[in-house]
Design goal:
Strands 1, 2, 3, 4, 5, 6, 7, 8 and 9 form a nine-stranded mixed beta sheet that branches. The chain is of the alpha/beta class. Helices cover 40% and strands 21% of the residues.
Length: 277
């Protein structure tokens, strides 16, 4: 089974898990949406490439955007349609591959979200091709929103679940994938390989390097969870506590010194010129 087949099967088997992930631990979604909502207006066309089960698509449709969701997983597409119907909004949801231009809708779109594909493309050339395919469908002056998994994410995840840390994960019982990941973590580099499925993890510098040479003006680069990635007690907080922590995270999530606190990074850029297809 190749990498994309493995990723597709992972999401086909459990689309509800991805939907629930942003419900139980919503910091990533709330912070990302705060930035996204600052740019996307009612009536604008949005391509949500790799949009999973539709969290961002449905949110933007509720705000009046005209959204097309494309995802590799048929399971994600099916759940996105169900969730959109339940929410009383209309989105177009179709199967497609970020690396296959023929499977993607024609532009131009006012904005393109690439919130999932770069998580699972293990080869740099493929990640650059996905970004190129996004930009080819984005109008000049439109905004690209592209997400990455942080090289620090597995460590942060385990810090929120100290009692689940496997004994010997860094010792003789560690798998080859674990050894490779933690070597990359300690070096501040990147890892591409087996994880929760086939996945790519990178540093802030590694993420930003993908946009060099493209006709893009960087507007924001942030840690999507702010200060809160390791916290798993959202539901126990009062509304006032949630608002206070969210506010502090929004004020600090673009500080370079705090990017390592997040499990995900979000790049926001404005297209400034033509992209050759």
């Amino acid at each position: 089974m190749n990498d994309r087949e493995a990723v597709k099967q992972y999401y086909d088997d459990a689309p509800q898990s991805e939907w629930s992930r942003l419900e139980l631990n919503p910091w990533e979604f709330l912070i990302n949406c705060t930035f996204i909502d600052g740019y996307i207006r009612p009536g604008e066309r949005v391509l949500d490439l790799g949009g999973g089960p539709g969290r961002y698509s449905i949110h933007l449709a509720k705000r009046g955007a005209e959204v097309t969701l494309v995802d590799l997983s048929d399971g994600n597409i099916g759940l996105a349609r169900e969730k959109a119907l339940a929410a009383g909004v209309s989105i177009e949801a179709r199967q497609g591959d970020a690396l296959d231009p023929a499977s993607l809708p024609e532009g131009p779109f006012d904005h393109v979200l690439c919130m999932g594909p770069l998580y699972h493309l293990l080869v740099r050339e493929e990640r650059l091709r996905a970004i190129k395919n996004c930009l080819a469908r984005l109008k000049r002056g439109g905004k690209l929103f592209a997400a990455f998994i942080s090289i620090y994410s597995d460590m942060i995840y385990r810090l929120g679940r100290l009692d689940s840390w496997p004994e010997g994960i860094l010792g003789i019982d560690a798998t080859e994938s674990e050894r490779r990941y933690y070597s990359a973590l300690k070096a501040g580099g990147e890892y591409a390989g087996e994880a929760f499925t086939r996945a790519y993890f990178t540093s802030p510098e590694g993420a930003l390097s993908h946009f060099e040479g493209f006709p893009l003006k960087k507007l924001h680069f942030l840690g999507s969870e702010g200060l809160l990635a390791a916290r798993r007690d959202w539901l126990s907080l009062t509304h006032e506590q949630r608002d206070a922590w969210l506010g502090l995270s929004l004020e600090t999530c673009e500080m370079p010194a705090l990017l390592s606190w997040s499990e995900h990074f979000l790049y926001i850029g404005e297209k400034t010129g033509r992209i050759d297809i």
